[in-house]
Amino acid sequence: MEDSSSLGKVSGSTESVCTVNSEEFVLVSQQAEDSPSSREKKPRLKMSSNGSEQLEKAMEEILEEQGEKYEPKRESPQPPVESPVALDNERAPVSLELETSPTEVLACEPGSPAVVEEDSVLFNKLSYLGCMMVRAPRNEAEAQKAMATLRADCAIPIPVTLYVPNVPEGSVRIIDQASGTEIASFPIYKVLFCARGCDGTPEGDCFAFTESYRSCEDFQIHVFSCEIKEAVSRILYSFSTAFRRSSKPAPDVKDGSLPSPESDVFTFTASLEVKEDDGKGNFSPVPKDRDKFYFKLRQGVEKKVMVTIQQITNKELGIERCFGMLLSPGQKVRNSDMHLLDMESMGKSSDGKAYVITGTWSPNIPPFQVLNEETPKDKQVYMTVAVDLVVTEVEEPVRFLLETLVRVYPANERFWYFSRKAFTETFYLRLKQGSEKSGQSSVDMIYEVVSLQRHAERDQECQSPTGVSGNPLSPAEEDEAEDDSDSEISSGTGDVSKDCPEKILESWGGILNRWHGNLDVRPKGLLALVKPGIPEALRAEVWQLLSGCHNNQSLLETYRVLITKDSAQEGVITRDIHRTFPAHDYFKDSDGDGQDSLYKICKAYSVYDEEIGYCQGQSFLAAVLLLHMPEEQAFCVLVKIMYEYGLRQLYKNNFEDLHCKFYQLERLVQEQLPDLYNHFMDLNLEAHMYASQWFLTLFTAKFPLCMVFHITDLLLCEGLNIIFNVALALLKTSKEDLLQADFEGALKFFRVQLPKRYRAAENARRLMEQACNIKVPTKKLKKYEKEYQSMRESQLQQEDPIDRYQRENRRLQEASMRLEQENDDLAHELVTSKIALRNDLDQAEDKADVLNKELLNTKQRLVETEDEKRRQQEETAQLKEVFRRELEKAESEIKKTTAIIAEYKQICSQLSTRLEKQQAATKEELDIVKTKVMSCERCREVFSKEGTLQLPTVSRDNRDQDVDEEKDSLKKQLRELELELAQTKLQLVEAKCKIQELEHQRGVLMNEIQAAKNSWFSKTLSSLKTATTSTQPPTSPKEGL
């Protein structure tokens, strides 16, 4: 848990020197003097990260840094200056000598020349207090906190000699005065900031500088105290001079690599890696045989070829792109025999130092038939891969050609993954400057390729023809080179075999069936199955069952809530997850799913456990769990390990329980490995110097995954004490090497060589088998715990009361500052919450007012709608009455018209009958008259044969007159009848027309009535009914209050 926030703010005048955008430096002389008190304890380095998280691992980390820096120029010893005088700030930098007497202070005489090395200034009478990690490397307040922390925690400062360079290429060196060995060395361009302690404080004689530690994201601060307090200004003056002369930093990638003596030779490393489809949508690196160093390929499996090009010497050349990746079976193949692969990706690596090209390879096509056929036993075939790169400063493309051995196995072949190292070759590219074009600057100079040689070819030119061959290193040479190197094994390395015999799977199946039947009790025989290791396919389920969080829904819901909250340690978490398992593909990408899930788990736990929060090392354990289960279940298991297995107790009370574990481990080593214990005592090598990560990260930070997973199996089954078993097994197997090592060699062995020994799964299995056979009785651990507590009590009683009270005062001050900070945070959160609640309340009140207004408007609209409804009902009643009267009137008229029509029809029928009768009677009368006339001879002539009447001529006028009168009377009568008939017909037509008109009006009225029923009136009524039923009478705002 971070304690940096508990340190008080530093006030007073300070001075600092920074390398960023500044060439003016102000030096303020300090007047108060406070020499550090000496204590009779064995010297040791202490390191603190944000309070105390690295637990006194300074020596380990400093020595680790030593192997990564290039060797600075050697300084020749200078004679000491013996005349003590006051230091003058106006003179040149001087060196201070530390005599044998701890109380005597000596400095240079004012007139004497400064004791200066050939390329650096030497300062003695200094004590090294330690180093710690910092977040802001150029923050003076954080530097003051670091000086206060390390000054308070340091038991015995280490007398050192400090060398400050005079040249931009020099290095700041820290030399142990007792042994003369170099503790650490830092190139001046990596020193970012210098500061001195505040006047009037115990840190007034201290100064510190920060440097970039391993990467651009990690920074360390180194703190020193000076017996001559006034010399601090002179030391900072030397740093400022070095900063002025170092106008720009030297490239960092050249560390550890000797540049080529020829300025026109550029050195590159090309690495080849082959990946195969694992059947789950992912591509995994293929293994390499450790005896004959060849790739193991499988038939008919899709593959990817990855080539990484990195420049390691000379001026950096810019690689624009790769326009071709070619592959062919065989060695020394012609260009026409190579076949182009499909490019999948190209670009710079995540750290920007290398260029990575990836191509897809389908082995089933005919040109690659040789590489897709099973290779006979004890035979290998060559494979050639080439990449053509376009380099910005080079006219023509540059081809890197890699030739390696492969062997093809059947598709269902299973391998023991002993080595997956990429095949690497070194190339030397010799260039010459091309003809300079007009207007071309020296910066844009174009080069021409003179030659491109492999490392083996270059050595053959310098040696005999039978010297070095171009074949890859043998496994023995590879292991020897790796063991001799200072590079640490990356966390997350190693392969875990998924193969498991069927008998073991059957045994596990029976155990799990019984276990699921009763989750409260572990089944018998479980421990015997866990000791050899849980099968990889079952680890997720078994780990959850062992930790007791199988199907823990409440904790799962808690996690889903926690990931939505903010954490005060998000910055630390973000920085750490980038360094967690960088060698594993799942956590390699910055924006990948692995780092995202890991960030969520660490953030959620920091919010869940407010007392401890996030601590460095938790991310490794969370990453192990994430490799086997989803993030929700991984969080649940992490909580169980921290709480129920007691891991969080190690972080509490200033790591008191952790120091107790260290004491128990030392007592176990004393009992079981006495000679090794005595050797450690002679070296002053304490358990916290090598076992801190073992306890805090459960071996997950450095060791291969196959061993880490097995340790986690035993931890979840047997508890936290299994760490003692593994630690003792490691010490027993490494006893001979440790007995021959000195202090630095032992720390280097623990840090570098020891984890590398167990990359092979067989070595890790034998180690874990030995660890399970070691007996660590619980009673003995409790006995050692009581001894440690008694020892601590006696130390506290023997301690000077003033020192004890001062330490207790510092602890209380830190706790007070931490509580004040928490109080400020809570107060800020409370004020923020109140403001947010006030805003929410105001918004709710505004919304209530709006809703009340809308409610009143709705009520008003409802009243108006009801009035409209009543009016419409009245109008409807009136319309109905009008329609009823009109309908009755129309019906009465229709009845009258119907009666008239009936009477008219009756009259017409009577008239027709009467006319027919008259016509018949007239005809009968005419026939009678005609018959009588024809019977008379005299009158017969009156009628002609045609029937016409023919009167005698004599009496024609009379007869005509009579006839005319009769005709006129008949015609008149006939006209009258016709007129009467016409009038009757006319009346009939008029009656019919009026009937039709009345029927039409009746139909129109009926349609209007029906439409009125189905239109707005009915809809309005229905909407009003709906609104009336759905709206309940609301209470007024005043009544609600």
Can you walk through the features of this model?
- This protein has an eight-stranded antiparallel β-sheet with strand order 1-6-7-8-2-3-4-5. Strands 9, 10, 12, 15, 16, 19 and 20 form a seven-stranded antiparallel β-sheet that branches.
- The chain is built from 27 helices and 20 strands.
- Helix content is 46%, strand content 15%.
- β17 (381-391) and β18 (398-409) form a beta hairpin.
- The longest helix is centred in the C-terminal third of the chain and has 135 residues, at 801-935.
- The chain is α+β, with helices and mostly antiparallel strands.
- 31% of the residues are buried.
Number of strands: 20
Instruction: Summarize the biggest pleated sheet.
Output: 8 strands, antiparallel
Provide the β-strand percentage band: 15-25%
Poorly predicted runs: 1-118, 247-261, 436-443, 464-484, 1034-1041
Dominant shape: elongated
Distance between the termini: 49 Å
**Main sheet: strand order:** 1-6-7-8-2-3-4-5
What is the tally of helical segments? 27
Mean pLDDT: 76
Over the alpha carbons, how many angstroms does the gyration radius reach? 55 Å
Helix content: 40-55%
SSE-based structural type? alpha+beta
